[in-house]
Please model this.
Amino acid sequence: MNATHNTIMVALIVMVALAGCGGDSGPTGTYQSKLGPGQTFSLKFLGNDEMEVTINENGMNDSYKTNFVTKGDTIVMNIPEAKRQTGRPASMEFKRNGEAFEMTAEGMTIRFEKL
Model:
């Protein structure tokens, strides 16, 4: 091995090590929006690009797990086919705004605060 080859190998090892332990690991914890009296919409980030979504209306919970991808300061959540309403998109976008997430639906901005 020559010096150039050694330098390239060391640079590659450092890049792999930094990629494995650095950067944003994605959101953690639970975020919640109070939609109205007795209505909440919660996002619980479980790790490994998985989340649990819970909609509570007057004590009746509808909850499901799904996956998401992070694109910069935006989370794109996949909506499982069984939970998707006819004519609605297959995903929802949540944009980070400080310590909260926000989404826009039907002209309304819904804010999810970290619990």
User: Anything to note?
Assistant: The chain has one domain: 26-114. The chain is about 15% helix and 55% strand.
